[in-house]
Design brief:
Strand order of the largest sheet of chain B: 1-2
Protein name (chain B): Geranylgeranyl transferase type-2 subunit beta
Low-confidence stretches of chain A: 26-36
Pfam families (chain B): Prenyltrans (PF00432)
Largest sheet of chain A: none
Helix content of chain B: 40-55%
Distance between the termini of chain A: 62 Å
Number of strands of chain A: 0
EC number (chain B): 2.5.1.60
Bound molecules: zinc ion
Largest interface: A-B, 61 and 52 residues
Shape of chain B: globular
Strand content of chain B: under 5%
Order of helices and strands of chain B: HHHHHHHHHHHHEEHEEH
Order of helices and strands of chain A: HHHHHHHHHHHHHHH
Radius of gyration of chain A: 27 Å
Largest sheet of chain B: 2 strands, antiparallel
Number of helices of chain B: 14
Subunit structure (chain B): Heterodimer of an alpha and a beta subunit.
Family (chain B): Belongs to the protein prenyltransferase subunit beta family.
Oligomer: heterodimer
Chain lengths: 300, 331
């Protein structure tokens, strides 16, 4: 929101005197009692007018800045702005600078992220982008748009080097960050692939993580996800570690459910059934699910 | 087995009864009060806002003739020469609002108000070679847009206009290692996107590609001790995510895998005593959460509400009138 006290309404600007603003489809002479809504109503009135006339000019570009400040969720503002940037051949670096505050103030709005992506695409140069995203992730480490944009940059410009280390760092800070686990899978898959050596280190990394924080859905899900890439030796190792964890009293629904899956995947039906029965007792919210698993095992 | 979790506590004095009269008044007031800050600030999603309000009212059986003629006029004025619809007159056409517009019109049985052939052309123009859909001509791709495209065509009975195989394959390429779906290939699994992908596959009759067991587990893991559901691990429960998760479970026939009574109590607690439903108990209400909260209660079997169709998020009688039968997996 522009709380700028120097802001002059468009209706009071001489260079806009030739345009008649268009009102939203409401009663004409009503008054809104919210302080900054006059700025909002004023700039969007002129926006509707230029959308109708199709004017593409510097003053319209300036108008979209005000409109974006007032309501960045209005997707048409960003479309019009891109049209103007292309038409007026605006400096794309300057636009990226403008987008820094826009994104900082509207992190959950996908329009602003997409607009930035388009600018970088047009520029064909990702310099500084990974750092920028990294900074945004300091604010909200699970921002879906930020991660998605990061994946786009990595793939588009082939920037895999060092990305696994970034995942390490993010997970060291918060091992419950599901977005970072997802990124980890994405990075391994697209860089080295889940080779036998890579699996050795991924299994150790994940087991260390679950040993440190047992009740963590995300790390268990990752372990479940990479299990299918494991060879027999690695599978046996995973089961071994989990059983040890379990017998030492570090139980959680997650570790037990992984054990159930691994027993099932390696054909140890009786142990799997025992795990399912235990889960049914402990995880009351999902008792029907565990009952279903137990029934399947009995029917096999 | 005890564990710390991100969750909320439902207040002792939270609502336990469904407040139909209050919600009806709230939605009527919201629509009448065209000068309110909320109304003016939401012009950019007007058609979706109207869709949430009328679906909520329809569910409660209180839609009656709620501004019907005016609304049809607005939808009409949102159609552009390219066939697509925008959120409000003069804004740009977008697949999101194209679906909202069509959903509104089928609810009022007034599809002839717009040029349906042009809508079909618009949707087809957004279809890409890899089977994905752009949201508009600017090229953003999202599995949400796949659902919007496919649902729009299904409601218009024009599914024949697109290639089903590539559309299906694109959705499947967004399946993750945890069995869920994201916005694009390899994007993190997210309950809202899971719904979009399942609903798309359901409409295309392609649900056999889904690992219902693994995905069902991920979905029922979303339920927290408060009874509410979250959209991703380690996130707070939310009435709207309760719907996305619940309807996904319904589509794959696993609704019984969660504790329905606890979820019901959570949604009822999100009601404001003056009407409307919020994301969590005590928060600000809006038409969006009001609609999805009610839709969730309907799916949970609340008999004071009409039945909702899990795939289209429209009242079942509307879907029956159109003779549509989206695929639902057997329990
Ligand atoms: Zn919500």
């Amino acid at each position: 929101m522009s709380s700028d006290e120097d802001h002059v309404l468009y209706k009071d600007r001489s260079d806009w005197a030739d345009v008649k603003p268009l009102d939203i489809e409401t009663d004409k002479d009503s008054v809104i009692n919210i302080a900054y809504s006059e700025t909002f109503r004023d700039c969007y009135g002129y926006l509707r007018a230029v959308l109708k006339s199709g004017e593409l000019s510097e003053r319209v570009f300036e108008l979209t800045t005000t409109c974006a400040d007032e309501n960045p969720s209005c997707y048409t503002v960003w479309l019009l702005r891109r049209k103007l940037i292309a038409h007026l051949k605006k400096d794309l670096r300057e636009e990226l600078d403008f987008m820094v505050t826009q994104i900082q103030e509207n992190q959950k709005n996908y329009q602003v992220w997409y607009h930035r992506q388009k600018m970088v695409e047009w520029l064909g140069d990702p310099a500084g982008e990974l750092e920028f995203i990294r900074n945004m992730l300091e604010w909200d480490a699970k921002n879906y748009h930020a991660w998605q944009y990061r994946q786009w940059i990595l793939r588009k410009f082939n920037l895999w080097d060092g990305e696994l280390a970034v995942c390490d760092e993010m997970l060291a800070k918060d091992c419950r960050n599901n977005s970072a686990w997802n990124q980890r899978y994405f990075v391994v898959l697209n860089s080295t692939g889940f080779t036998s050596e890579v699996m050795d280190s991924e299994i150790e990394f994940t087991l260390d993580s679950v040993r440190e924080v047992n009740y963590n859905e995300s790390s268990w899900n990752y372990l479940r996800g990479i299990f299918k890439h494991a060879n027999d030796k690695q599978k046996a190792h995973i089961i071994n570690v989990l059983e040890k964890e379990f017998s030492s009293g570090r139980k959680s629904v997650f570790s037990l459910s992984i054990l159930l899956d691994t027993y099932e995947a390696t054909g140890q039906k009786d142990l799997a059934l025992k795990a399912a029965e235990q889960l049914k007792e402990h995880d009351l919210l999902r008792a029907n699910y565990w009952d279903f698993r137990a029934r399947l095992l009995r029917e096999e | 087995m005890a564990y710390p979790l991100k969750d909320i506590q439902i207040p002792e004095d939270a609502n336990k009864e469904l407040l139909i009269a209050k919600h009806t008044k709230y939605l009527y007031d919201f629509a009448e009060n065209k000068d309110s800050f909320e109304y003016v600030m939401t012009e950019h999603l007007r058609l979706s806002g109207i869709f949430w309000s009328i679906t909520a009212l329809d569910l409660m059986g209180t839609l009656r003739d709620f501004n019907k003629e005016d609304i049809i006029e607005i939808v009409k004025s949102c159609q552009h020469s390219n066939g697509g619809l925008s959120a409000a007159p003069r804004l740009d056409s977008h697949i999101l609002y194209t679906l909202s517009g069509v959903q509104i019109l089928v609810t009022f049985d007034a599809l002839n108000a717009i040029n349906a052939d042009a809508v079909v052309d618009y949707v087809c123009s957004l279809h890409q070679k890899d089977g994905s859909f752009f949201g508009d001509k600017w090229g953003e791709v999202d599995t949400r847009f796949s659902l919007c495209a496919v649902a729009t065509l299904a409601l218009l009975k024009r599914l024949d206009a697109i290639d089903i195989e590539s559309t299906t394959n694109y959705i499947l390429s967004c399946m993750n290692f945890d069995g869920g779906f994201g916005r694009r290939p390899h994007s993190e699994t997210h309950a809202g996107q899971v719904y979009c992908c399942l609903a798309t596959l359901s409409i295309l009759n392609q649900l056999h590609h889904v690992n219902a067991e693994q995905l069902g587990w991920w979905l029922c893991e979303r339920q927290l001790p408060s009874g509410g559901l979250n959209g991703r691990p380690e996130k707070l429960p939310d009435a709207c995510y309760s719907w996305w998760v619940l309807t996904s479970l319904a589509i794959i026939g696993k609704l019984h895998w969660i504790d329905k009574d606890k979820l019901s109590a959570f949604i009822l607690a999100c009601q404001d005593s003056d009407g409307g439903i919020a994301d969590r108990p005590g928060d600000e209400v809006d038409p969006y959460h009001t609609n999805f909260g009610l839709a969730g209660l309907s799916l949970l079997g609340e008999n004071r509400l009409k039945k909702i169709n899990p795939v289209f998020c429209l009242c079942q009688d509307v879907i029956d009138r159109l003779k549509l039968k989206p695929q639902i997996l057997d329990p």
